[in-house]
């Protein structure tokens, strides 16, 4: 084999150096023991510098759900048996906010939070390998999850929850929020079953995912008194006066009552008053 001329080798080396500068190597993955919360990119952990979470006592109208999630998370943080949790139900009723607030309340116990995007569910085994053996407890948070009829990724999540060869490690629990109780639409399962040899098996396969969660907590649309109580709680904390009729007109204009709508109204009140919300 004939070696290339020296000037060509030098040129190739310069081109390689230039390409390295244009596309530097990815930053090293974050230390899973150093930060309070992380985001999983599918290949690496990134520490979250500032996690926005309301204090638990500011989340109103979901007392039973709050008590259940807090108790389960506290047990997990202390190394005791704990459940994976599915939080399902009406939009804007505090499912995601509750997970983050519970984590905030238990940060002193060393509990870590890792947010996993819906599209990265198939990479959960890699994340499990990253966290397995770490001397720390984690909540893996998958927000606003649902699957359509033609998607099969739900099988990957079902496998890691229970029954897979490489199940999630003992120091990890999954907290998933969804607007759907079964994650997979029931009508899609029934439509598929209509042409199947064993219809019951198809429906069971499609709907079995939600059964893998030890706790399944429903969040339902709040009534008018609860909505006003949520507004009042936020307004009192931030020192904002409000008119009940104005608050009701606000929710009528949005076509729903929820904790999210109440918080948006309080933001409107703060804007009118020229105040910031810390």
TrEMBL record:
Give the source species: Sphingoaurantiacus capsulatus
One annotated GO molecular function is: ATP binding
Alphabetical list of Pfam families matching this protein: DUF815
Residues passing through the membrane, by range: none
Could you tell me what this protein is called?
A: ATP-binding protein
Q: Which InterPro entries match?
A: DUF815, P-loop_NTPase
Q: PANTHER family from the xrefs?
A: SLR0930 PROTEIN
Cite the entry's keywords alphabetically: ATP-binding, Nucleotide-binding
Q: Which domain of life does the protein's organism represent?
A: Bacteria
């Amino acid at each position: 084999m004939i070696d290339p001329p020296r000037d060509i080798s030098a040129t190739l080396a310069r081109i390689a150096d230039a390409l390295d500068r244009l596309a530097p190597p990815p930053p090293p993955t974050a230390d899973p023991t150093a930060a309070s919360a992380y985001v999983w990119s599918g290949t690496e952990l990134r520490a979250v510098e500032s996690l926005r979470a309301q204090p638990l006592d500011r989340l109103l109208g979901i007392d039973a759900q709050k008590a259940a999630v807090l108790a389960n998370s506290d047990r997990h943080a202390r190394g005791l048996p704990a459940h994976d949790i599915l939080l399902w139900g009406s939009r804007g009723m505090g499912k995601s906010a509750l997970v983050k607030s519970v984590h905030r309340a238990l940060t002193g116990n060393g509990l870590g939070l890792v947010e996993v995007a819906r599209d990265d569910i198939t990479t959960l085994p890699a994340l499990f390998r990253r966290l397995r053996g770490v001397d720390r407890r984690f909540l893996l948070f998958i927000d606003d999850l649902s699957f359509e009829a033609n998607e099969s990724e739900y099988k990957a999540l079902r496998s890691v929850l229970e029954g897979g060869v490489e199940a999630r490690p003992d120091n990890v629990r999954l907290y998933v929020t969804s607007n759907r109780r079964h994650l997979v639409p029931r009508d899609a399962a029934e439509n598929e079953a209509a042409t199947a040899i064993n219809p019951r098996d198809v429906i069971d396969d499609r709907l079995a995912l939600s059964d893998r969660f030890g706790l399944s907590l429903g969040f339902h649309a709040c009534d008018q008194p609860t909505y006003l109580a949520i507004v009042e709680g936020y307004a009192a904390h931030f020192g904002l006066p409000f008119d009940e009729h104005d608050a009701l007109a606000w929710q009528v204009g949005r076509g729903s009552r929820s904790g999210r709508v109440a918080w948006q109204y309080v933001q409107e009140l703060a804007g009118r008053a020229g105040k910031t919300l810390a």
